[in-house]
């Protein structure tokens, strides 16, 4: 039954030294604590498989044996259909939801019951996670059901091998417009994803260029199928990003009008062929009418007409259409202060609520702009009462240091998930809306842009592995705290030394705040270099067409988005939030400049003036990075050299970059305001 | 003797409609004025060649016959060694300098006497230029000697086919790391160049990348020879840009130390082989220790040691080494206000004066920065008393609108050439130094970066042809006025309609001033987008490492480069200029911010404040572009549609871009200064 040992196949690819990085949180380090080892061993000796095996169960058992072999040097004997006194029993329970599993233990007997093969796989990873954390297996009574039904990753990989907004090397799916033949990386990636409960992904960029348009044609479908199968065997459903203009791009038609008969027929035929070859495909992801991508607007159709046409084409095969809401005017005139990009998603999609097919789902970014270090929650979330929706995060640190800066993203995402929209009165939190519970959606979930590439450690920055890990864990269970998730990850990734754990916790927990401190202040965002989005450039987007302005002058800064005197954006929120943001007195400090234009001398709720806040946070942010470096260097003899050096080099760069941010921002605002730092620190 | 008619070979490549653009100033339009035609015809009926023919003379005669066939539908009979009563006599005079020619006429006999075949070619083009301008050929008594011995073009073409800072399509020398087989373009280019007296060029980028390093090896030498031959046949000597690190790049050695025996031997061997295959090569052009290019600094050697080593290697073959002085710290810290990039060329090369070999020449950019719309003249010019030097201009409009904006560059260059350095007392003008006259240099001249590419009209913007034409004419004779040059060009390019001539003159003459008006003010320069250098970005380079800052704050703007309180840059000039620039009272307005940091309320010599000057010039600059458009559209029925539309579309883009500049600059400085426009015009 056991076909191969995954960790051995890894060895073919990388040196042993690199493998430690590559294994990420699936280290399965040998257990040195003999008392713990002997306590758990009894539960692990045998496995009784009381269910019909499939490839997912195969992979679960391979994982089990690999892990136990590595951690305990034991070979857990697998038997089908037998009963046990000691060991692990696997069984299905048809009354469970698909992804639900329970783990019960008593007297050296561990029972894992799942709603599906995939649930069993998740349960196996759960037990292994417990062991990697050295938790007891005694008297377990665990029931896990994921909060979100669909837990998805989006890749922005192009077929030339590049990754748009990729900071961890090239694609491991594509190179030179071909699928990469060696699929071991994909297999290992599927392991990592399923170990944290991811059950869906797209492999190609939402910006679908010429060649990538052919992914839905026979040119590539056989390869699509091979890739999809690997993910399927880890319980992950694959989707494809498609080009809305495919009928034109492929030279079949001269229109992509969603109401045109030939266009409808084109997509019906395309769907038919795609599902003939790849029957398990999840569906299509579409970025239409966005940042120069074609879409229904070209034909004076609305997004519902566009999405539903595709939805109907996929219906016979159970496929779904994921339609991105990242639609805004990207040819804005900076002179025009009335147009407000923040309004765009709501203005476009709120009027269409209820008009989408059952198998269409709208994908909404967490904030109204674009994955900035600080944004309010998108007001569209809570306003769509009769439309399937996904919440979209970005694990790739496009605006958050591009995986050269250590930034732990879970605290940011938790704020989003815990945000109270008041959509159905107090307590209507984002996490309950996007899970589908509040509005009883048929399709619901969370999606995020991947941060991985072909780098030997997957994510460029070793610490960025935590964001991938944490993403999976958080969307499975949004009630986990950021601390719990980080703690789990540290133990599995770096081991159990208490000083090590405490030190890394001190590095990761304040890292988002530190990044916010030394970059753009008080919710204003942007201030980065154009197009590559790295490093400070305060006016970088100020006189450009992207709708991303700060309006700083010699007196003050900020965007007036109030109903009273501004763009009216605050009116897109439910009353309680509207009032909160509308008033300069109640608007939270950290979002003040997002909602209001204020003088530098305005006194924040913190008691500081805006200008002094800018100076203070920027000096502090750099100090926080200096502390991170101190912490990390104290761990030199507790971590393997490769990972130690990898992180150390990036931290040193982060410090350099943080100083660039600090000095550029402080100098810019000092030059503009003429107001000196109260503490007389060095401003250039 | 006549091998082919050049203009007929052009026809093979382009449609007739495109050919009008392609012919540039060698239109040779049929002469409709019958009285003029009959007056000149007698001079043109026969040609008596009283000299030994070579390929240059061949090409001169081809040009002659092509032109007369086209303009007068006549076939000028060529005879060798005969005497004539009427017609053109060609002869050499050994007492003339190489490029000197005389043209004398009386009673229908035209005598062209040259110091060389090349001088004859120039004389032929001179006569054709007269005819194209409908000038009389009666009683001519012309003697022409070029002011500058070497009159050179630098291409920044890469072998992949791209052109660094190219705005007129790809290279017509290279594609996909090969020489382009069809060399007709090169032939026609050589015609254009020699028609205005250019006698030297490099074909490859000064930034010599990996593959291009092999141009001096047998991989490419046969192709180098073929290309060089075409230019030679028009009196143009070809040079190659070389990679200083070639010994390393080619994998031969692990050092490029100029004092290393093996390095010396490498270059001797390379030179030997190069000259075996391409005996007419002019030599090497080198960009070393500049913008990340390798150089002698790597080995703690100075530039004289680096250049002389190459000089000695070329000496046996009469080759020369052209060594660029564009050396500065491009990893500067913007916080450091003491380091001044403007000082760099002088600081590096002045101490080396007199240390360079006789066959080494230093190539000095016209200004201390980098081809900005307004810079002072490089203080190095006049300080090298015992060193060969070239002055470098840029015809490619890198910072001057990238051939999408109409900017006539001759007025700018004339200011440079007429600048009094006071190197040997009053009246020591740049034009007399770079010509070699002042310091009696063995090698001297002017070089400029090419603005051509494979576009059907050579230069992208039809009007940019004027800058190529004008460059050749100006460096041949710097005493020509900008008006004279423009007038010559208009007549040859567009014809003789008086309204057309007057209108185009009104467009081109103020165009540099207009561009300066709507872009960066008062000599401060930069304020463009990083790396591509197009469009306004006022802080684009402000917090960067390139040494290009404006230091604008809420009170004022400018770089203090005085001896008294600044970087001391003014001290690099001779006393008279030093005093002129050092004092805020005498410093010319147009360079004020280059030399001084002043408040926005500082009153210029013009009587305006700095801030009002900024507003006024920016509103005016846009109006000037609007006037250009009015002028041009008035010519719609006087110009062929292709060229009319080409220019019109670019003018419309220029207007859009000028408005972007105007509004960005005005808004930026209004936000910063808080000072309103006196005339209350729209500032955003």
From TrEMBL, chains A, B:
Q: Does the keyword Hydrolase apply?
A: yes
* Glycosyl hydrolase family 67 catalytic domain span: 131-458
Q: What is the superkingdom listed in this entry's lineage? A: Bacteria
| UniProt keyword annotations, A-Z | Carbohydrate metabolism, Glycosidase, Hydrolase, Polysaccharide degradation, Xylan degradation
* Catalytic residues identified in the record: 291, 370, 398
GO MF entry, a single one: xylan alpha-1,2-glucuronosidase activity
Supply the name of the protein.
Answer: Alpha-glucuronidase
Q: Which organism is it from?
A: Amphibacillus xylanus (strain ATCC 51415 / DSM 6626 / JCM 7361 / LMG 17667 / NBRC 15112 / Ep01)
